[in-house]
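Re: export button greyed out
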Amino acid sequence: MKKTAVHKKGMLLPLLLPPAIWLFLFLFLPYLNLFSYSFWKPGPFDVVKEFTLHNYAKFFTATSSGSVPYHVLIDTVELALVVTVFTVILSFPLAYYLNFKVTRFKQTIYMLVIIPLWVSYIVRAYSWKIILGTNGILNSAFIWLGVTDHPLDIFLYSKVSVIIGMVHIYTPFVLMPIYTALEQIPRNLLEASKDLGAGRFQSFLHVVVPLALPGVIAGATFAFVLSMGDFLAPSLLGGPDSSTMIANIVQQQFGTSNNWPYGSAIGIVILVLVLAILELTGRAEKRFSALDTVAMRK
Amino acid sequence: MRKRSAWSSIISLAAASALLLAACGGGGSQSAGPAAGNGNAASPASAPSADVKEKVKGQTLNLLTWEGYADPLFTKGFEELYGVKVNPTYFGSSDELLAKLKAGGGSTYDIISPSSDVAQLLVQSDMVEPIDPAKISSFQDLNEKLRNLTDVQKDGKLYGLPFTWGPDYLIYDGDVIKEEPTSWNIFWDPRYKGKVSLWDDINNLYMMGQIMGLDKSDPAALYNMTEEQLQQAKQKLVELKPNVRKYWATAGELNDLFANKEVVLAVGWPLTVKEVNAKGRNLKWTIPQEGATGWIDRLMIVKGTQHRELADLYLDYIASPKAMALVAEVTTYSVANPKAAAHMTKELQEMTYVNDMDKMFTRLNFWQYVKDRARYNEVWTEVKTN
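Workaround output, generated via the alternate export path:
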């Protein structure tokens, strides 16, 4: 590694200090606050500052009457996994195509994928209502084509619409790291593979995929973590069976239920879960990018 | 009474002659009215009010209300009347009101507009000051049932001025359902699979209680359901799920659901019917035989307010027929003063039931404070995640 000016001691501190202060004030302190709230009791107007583990116990123990946020968390993880799988399935071929097949308008097509990120989440969610609704574009098309004779309810206000909405919204987040990973694959490696007699598919499987894996893991992590914390898609596109994910439960605790300590406790549980996932995927990324550097060396 | 005459004189000075005529006309039907109405203008009664006016001049009244409850259409009249400023802050949920009140209290806010789900809590927790009905000239005009509700009374004192109210109607699409539904049970009718929308709120539990007939002898029973009753209510709501298309979160969302023909039956408020029908549809509302739940919002004076006198004047102003009519015009909610009818269009009168409030009240169960609100919320979440 080359030594740059930043590595000189005198320069490093003033550069790092502002973001460090920022993170401390607006990330670390709020989390600390959340953490302490999770051990207090709810009162009519404010929390009662008495230590209790009740909030955590309540989260993990089933009540007599069935479903508790714990089950919702499991459902949410499942949903996030489905969303992640679909975003990767969509993103990988697209990123591959953009990198290896498209020569003209490459940047333009890439921008077309990224542009939706600039459009408000809510606007995009509402657009799906117009497409998927009972009298929406999709149903009209199906009826016109004769696929069905009456509008289908399944597309909107169901798990289907929640998944479609989330996949659409989080695909760019997955596409970008995969695209970058593919972009960085030295083309001479592919040529070498060809020279050694590998077919297209073999090259793809043994050269491209392993080298793209860190990007796939990074993207999948984005999609998973973001969809786990999503409460807008379920509340806007979800039906009676899919309007309440774990983030909606948290939101409810800080809103209508007015139980901040319980909401904080659930928040901390999710935070720990997400940190664990980040740690795992971080390790996985490193492992596979180690392959990457070995391959790059010569 | 003295207030009202002073009032009229100032208004007449402000060249609102139509308003004056209406005020006198309105007073004519009441024995107490004319005396107050006639003693206006040059009478000595206007003197103290000049003092009051001098005293409050330039002050700012801070309102913390639901959106629409501090509209310039009616606050402007008050501002001009006393040479003061009205500074509104809005809250979007009862819990937000509690949070803001806790953070600011009387040093930040003077008047609040809590709904009946938290009104009692505010009174019992000593967050608000008693109001003096004698200082509100139209107080005796307000609907008797509304001004006698006991949840905002403590130790013989009154803490809330009835402001607006409304039912949670059964709304249906008249083009699909030709006959007026007589029972909430139509929601469970298999013919309407995936065509029903409920509000995403614990109000559904009150409704189930009402359908179960719990409030036959005691209206409060809906708000104090036992665990067993809650489980029954939950069961009913779970059974309803196949028929539910979407739990709506805002009135605007319900409008869209009806407008896009996603649903044909719902619990909702009159505004939905008005707005969707404006697009050429045929929505109708009804109160089924089991009755309906309803809500009432009151104005309260925050404990420790810095502008007590001005707050009293505002309550006096807002309770008047003309101001109440303007409130109804802005919100399309029903208002507490039946005399407001004189200032409303025929359509608005019908929509807000201003002429037959008492008839409506016999069929409504007004929301009350739920002691175990947390449990109600839990049960409702259990329904949604079942």
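The first strand of chain A starts at residue 41 and ends at 42. The button fix ships in the next patch.
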